[in-house]
Each structure stands twice: as C-alpha cells, then as structure tokens.
Design a protein that fits this description.
Length: 117
C-alpha cells in the first residue's frame, strides 16, 4: 500500500479506537462501579483526545477538506456505539435504530468509496 492509504488506514484505526475508549468512558458507568471514579473520568479523556485529534488531522491530510472528515467520524462513532451497546450492555436495537445504523454504514461507504482508488 502507498503512504496515502496508510494515512487513511491509520486514521480509521485511531478513530475507531478513540470511539471504543470514549464508549467505555461515557457508558461504562452503567455497568461497572470503577467507571464512576473521578480518576477514570479525568484520565480516560487524555487518550480519547489524542486519538481524535490525530485521527482528524490525518483524515484532513488525506482528504484535503473537512467536509469529508466529519461524516466519516460520525459513521464510525455511530457504528461503534451500536456495536458496543449491543455487546456490552446487551441492549438490542429497535428497528428505528437498526435503520440508523445501516444509514451510518451507507454514509461511511459513500464518503470512503469516492476517495479510495
């Protein structure tokens, strides 16, 4: 793979990882007592901020405009949230939510397929 594709793959991975940590940061409180700790609230935000900052920067370097960055971040965040909520909190999505998840996938597809060559 060329350097530009590696930039995109790294940005996607960092965004996904940031969203996973962010999910536990925000929603872990509903499952585990440790996730209510002030230390988790304070320290958990540090890796999340770095991952989102640098993934956004890499997406922008890859695409050259911010309008391509935001929909991809939205799609990754929505799909990650849906996956972790179902797996960890055992909440089954309703039909309305399933349609929203499908649309998030379509948003990702539309915004990535145009740029990957």
């Amino acid at each position: 793979m060329n350097d530009k594709i590696w930039l995109l793959v790294t940005a996607l991975g960092m965004s996904f990882l940031g969203n996973v940590i962010a999910w536990f940061h925000m929603n872990g409180q509903f499952r585990w007592e440790w996730a209510k700790s002030q230390w988790w609230i304070i320290l958990g935000g540090i890796p999340i901020s770095y991952l989102f900052y640098y993934s956004t920067r890499m997406f922008y370097a890859y695409f050259g405009d911010y309008w391509s960055v935001r929909p991809i971040g939205f799609g990754i965040a929505t799909l990650t949230f849906g996956m972790l909520t179902a797996l960890v909190l055992h909440e089954v999505p309703s039909q309305r939510i399933i349609i929203s998840l499908i649309l998030a996938g379509v948003i990702l597809y539309i915004n990535l397929s145009v740029h990957i060559k």
